[in-house]
Amino acid sequence: MATNLSKKEELLLKDQKSHEEVCIEKYTNYAEQAQDPELKQLFNQYLSQEEQHLNTLNQIMSGQVPNLQAQQGGQSGQQGQQGQQSGQNQNSQQSGQNQQYGMQSSKSTGMVEQSDIELCKDVLMTEKYVSNTYDTAIFEFRDTNIRNALNHIQKEEQQHGEGVFNYMYSKGMYNVE
Questions:
Q1: For a 10 Å CB count at each end of the chain, is N or C smaller?
Q2: Within 13 Å, how many C-alpha atoms sit on residue 57's CB side?
Q3: Helices 68-100 and 37-61 meet at what angle, rounded to 10?
Q4: What is the pTM assigned to this prediction?
Q5: What is the DSSP letter of 95?
């Protein structure tokens, strides 16, 4: 189904595209810079999803409404499994990780690479910002299918933020007090 976008909708999509391009650049660079293999893997996983987000936005800008069911079929199953595994394994892994990184408790950073901490802080802040910009854009689109596609992307951005937060918390990088 083809759709005609208003000028405002086009401008919002251009903004979202630029945000996705920044996310792609950050995850690409940060995956290379990360010291912890687990963090590298997390960044690479999110990189591939950010690339899909950019493809979806390009489809919308070309007048096509993306097929969400095709995208969700492959991604939501993976994310659901990863989220469950993360939750189940987080407590059992935390004590081993604390020992591995020389941590005294979950509140100290011990020998966790300072550069990994900075990468995580930056990408978490980026995900918070990008998710917020989708919130505004979603309400500005007339087409329900496009709003749904943007909402799907926003949910994945929020999952990225949650994943980075969970990683940071499990390594003692994020104090919730």
A1: C
A2: 26
A3: 160
A4: 0.75
A5: H
Cα(104)–Cα(106) distance, rounded to whole angstroms? 7
CA 4 – CA 164 distance, rounded (Å): 37
Structural domain boundaries in the chain: 1-47+109-177
- Which has the closest alpha carbon to 39: 110, 99, 131, 119? 119
Q: The tokens of 134 are what?
A: 């989708």
Q: What is the CATH number of domain 1-47+109-177?
A: 1.20.1260
Give the torsion through C-alpha atoms of 167, 40, 132, 140, to 10 deg. Answer: -140
CB 24 within 8 A of CB 58: no
* Contact (CB, 8 A) for 4 and 63: yes
Q: What is the DSSP letter of 64?
A: B
Q: Tokens at residue 143, please?
A: 């087409």
Contact 97, 49 (CB under 8 A): no
Q: pLDDT per residue over 54-107, tens digit each?
A: 999 999 999 988 776 655 544 444 444 444 344 434 433 433 333 333 333 333
Q: Where are the alpha helices (DSSP H) in the chain?
A: 7-33, 37-61, 68-100, 114-138, 144-170
Residue with tokens 């100290």: 108
55 and 144 Cβ atoms separated by less than 8 Å = no
